[in-house]
Structures are given as structure tokens and as C-alpha cells.
Design brief:
Blueprint lengths: L14 H13 L4 E10 L2 E4 L9 E6 L2 E11 L4 H20 L3 E12 L2
Parallel strand pairs: 4-5
Antiparallel strand pairs: 1-2, 1-4, 3-4
Helix pairs in contact: 1-2
Length: 116
């Protein structure tokens, strides 16, 4: 390829792949015990296993805009506001640095609190 030639093509990333990337990022953040299902069963949040972490992330796209809803379980005794802020920053950073995607909106839904 000669200098100055542009590589042309298109890359697409599935919503499930984005969900996996975001969920794994969440589980590495301080204060997050795990990902939770989006609904409640008998008033109790269900913690998701490693093979279904992406189900704790709802991805919405509108054109180039990406919006995320994160459903998490936090560790008892942490400052939930700080955990949520850190989580939002980390998710935005990882999406930008690894997939060149920008999340316009990230909402954190704390589904439960557990002792680790």
C-alpha cells in the first residue's frame, strides 16, 4: 500500500459485543459486586453469571448516538454515588479507547446491595 492510500471499509460491533465489553468493565470497577438482571424476581435482584453478564447492559442506538443502561449490584458500605460516577467514566473511556465508540448517555441502575 502506497503512502497516503486510505483503507476503506466498514466495521460493525453488535449490541451484544458492546454489552459484553461494558459488563466486563463494570465488574472490574471498585464497589461493583456484579451485574444484575434488568427485572426483579420476587423483589430480589438476580446476579448474573459470567456467561450472561451482557444481559445487565441495555444498549440503545440512534444513528451514531449510543445510550447505555447498566444494571449493577454494589458492595455494602460503599459510596454509591462515587461508584456510579467512576463506573460511567470507566465505561466511556473503555468504549472510546477499544472500540472508538462514544456513549452519549450512561445510566446506572443499582439493583441491589450485597456484602462481598
Amino acid at each position: 500500500m502506497a503512502e497516503g492510500d486510505a483503507v476503506r471499509g466498514k466495521m460493525s460491533i453488535s449490541d451484544e459485543a458492546i454489552g459484553e465489553l461494558v459488563a466486563h468493565t463494570c465488574t472490574r470497577c471498585y464497589g461493583v459486586v456484579g451485574m444484575a438482571s434488568q427485572g426483579f424476581q420476587e423483589g430480589v435482584a438476580q446476579m448474573l453469571g459470567m456467561d450472561s453478564l451482557h444481559k445487565g447492559v441495555k444498549v440503545r442506538r440512534k444513528g451514531d448516538e449510543l445510550s447505555l443502561n447498566l444494571y449493577i449490584i454494589v458492595e455494602a458500605g460503599v459510596n454509591i454515588t462515587e461508584v456510579a460516577r467512576n463506573l460511567i467514566d470507566q465505561v466511556k473511556y473503555v468504549l472510546q479507547s477499544t472500540a472508538r465508540l462514544q456513549a452519549q448517555e450512561v445510566e446506572v441502575h443499582v439493583q441491589g446491595v450485597r456484602a462481598s
